[in-house]
Amino acid sequence: MKHSEIKDHIIKTASHLFYHKGYNLTGINEIISEAGIAKATLYNHFKSKEDICLAYLQYKNSAFLTKIKEVCASKKKGIGQVLAVFDFLEAFFKDKDFNGCWCINTISELPKENQRIRSEIQQQKNSLINFLTELVGQNLPDHSTLEQQKLAKQIYLLYEGAVAESHLHQNDWPITSARELCNSIIN
Amino acid sequence: MKHSEIKDHIIKTASHLFYHKGYNLTGINEIISEAGIAKATLYNHFKSKEDICLAYLQYKNSAFLTKIKEVCASKKKGIGQVLAVFDFLEAFFKDKDFNGCWCINTISELPKENQRIRSEIQQQKNSLINFLTELVGQNLPDHSTLEQQKLAKQIYLLYEGAVAESHLHQNDWPITSARELCNSIIN
Amino acid sequence: MKHSEIKDHIIKTASHLFYHKGYNLTGINEIISEAGIAKATLYNHFKSKEDICLAYLQYKNSAFLTKIKEVCASKKKGIGQVLAVFDFLEAFFKDKDFNGCWCINTISELPKENQRIRSEIQQQKNSLINFLTELVGQNLPDHSTLEQQKLAKQIYLLYEGAVAESHLHQNDWPITSARELCNSIIN
Amino acid sequence: MKHSEIKDHIIKTASHLFYHKGYNLTGINEIISEAGIAKATLYNHFKSKEDICLAYLQYKNSAFLTKIKEVCASKKKGIGQVLAVFDFLEAFFKDKDFNGCWCINTISELPKENQRIRSEIQQQKNSLINFLTELVGQNLPDHSTLEQQKLAKQIYLLYEGAVAESHLHQNDWPITSARELCNSIIN
DNA sequence: GATGAATGAGAGTTCATTCAT
DNA sequence: TATGAATGAACTCTCATTCAT
Hints:
The structure is a homotetramer. Helix content of chain A is 78%, strand content 0%. By secondary structure, the first copy, chain A, is mainly alpha-helical. Chain A folds into two domains: 1-46, Homeodomain-like (Arc Repressor Mutant, subunit A), CATH 1.10.10; 49-186, Tetracycline Repressor, domain 2. In chain A, helix 4 (49-73) crosses helix 5 (79-94) and helix 5 packs parallel to helix 8. The interface between C and D is large, with 41 and 41 residues. Chain D binds a DNA duplex through residues 1, 3, 6, 27-29, 37-41, 43-45, 48-49.
């Protein structure tokens, strides 16, 4: 395995564990034994557990953005492309891999002082808002830019609420509910 | 101090620490040193750390429900009483004690297997939905019962989203945004 | 309940726990909750856990001597009365309450320095040897006093081995085997 | 020090403490400070205290079997080789390291539920019975196989009784007594 | 005489990280 | 570069005993 392949392998292994068991509840030992590497090898690729956390967040977000954009693009232009974010979420929720939002999960586990992770998470959320703003811009051209921005934030709020609550209640009604509400404001 | 006073004292101390530092990052040692009691004293009052966690959640929720009901009741009957949940949240957010939702924070830190805490949290969220349903029922009597229930869930989603996102972004725009969206659907 | 009745109640409760769970593995809390008394009440009757241990040993030994003498006395005079110690043991072993020898069990759990308990146990064992010496003296009068003493000690050894090994192997072959060997030396 | 050397070092240190102070009365802290290693180092070599206990029992038994076989083999073939088990015991008793039987001592300290340790101990005892059966088979060839097995079990009982009682009474008369009785049944 | 709340000391175990090889 | 052994600090929890009431 090449150097970067090992790193990828570590990130994937750690991501699965962090996402499903939680950051603090996943030990370094678990990561290395799952990844089948030596402890020092892990520390050759990452300075600390926190660095792996950062890589985990980026890995998750990157895959997420790719997928959600894909799903939206697959729909016919117009309102449907906007509502597609909830179609994506519905599928995401039904996937056995679903365990809520990695950002929310992670931020809850870290001390307030940890600015490094916190700002990464804020950036990720901003990138989602940006995507939604573009999506609204492209598909609801009749609204003013200001209104588009306002709508994007509201959809973002609905999306975030739906992720968290479908996870918490283990039920997809929050997604349905958010979708309906979204539909009513973009018509 | 009487038995129950000590217990209350422990709950308050632990609650502050759990809420602000996180459950896993708060050690028993920190709780006892902050509370000024011996370790065994704590364990005379609580069987385990998890039991303290449960008491913490209940303490938080109880205070929360009291306060939000108070704020809503203080407004003039009608739409205002419904929107008041966001007034409450605005004040909550501005309080220096604000650190997001204790339920969301806590559930992120616990293993999936922990059904005891998870179901407490689900119950708390359901009690909020129930409150919102009553609130809508009393203040928006023109809607059908079914529509009232749907509205309550949507407001719940907006509220939850606003809590999480104002916390995450350290900014109150999500509250304002949720309030506006709420306003638009109840008019 | 009278003072001495409470004491008896504590001894019986503690004895059951000590005998079945072991001395160190039985906590004071377990004793009081099982006995239904307050912690300080226990300490009003016993200076320390060690004192309860002493009372436990004496309680066990006293009941044991009474019973074994009873069983032996119930047999027709002669060899049968001697072999009856193994009849007693057989019945003891089959009792669901059987958990080996309290003396051996207890001495294994205590530091060498604890002379108080150790000498109590040695006394108990000597009282058993004395009983066996009497038993042999009364039932095997053809042997010399010296031979009787030697026989008594050998029977004691066989008895002790049979108790320990039937307990360890959870099987009564050691009792049968000891009985046979005993039979062969007293004929 | 190599990995296995450290492990051996831990086993030896723990064995000495377990055997002389008892399993429950020996803390992990005592083992590590005596062994001069860090706590986590110990837990890198052993999963739990119970695992160290198992290694202790095996270490003791292995040394015991080696030694007793050696002593028996050193005698001239015949009755003497059988009686040699008590010669071994006599020497064992006189050794300042003598503290009774590790199996009996340990089993007394453990909860009934601990099948892992209990079965190890039963195995060890069975291996002793097997050795005695071989010994009798080789040195008392005139007896039938059945009689040999019966004899072996009786000698086992005598041996076990002698170990426990010499330890309890801190006197070697039980060994002498057992030896004589053994002598009388194999002639 | 009876209570139950409080305690200091210590239990076994796990953690992320480092370092010599 | 890759390793695995070693670590100090922290973890949750339990113990027998005491003391004010």
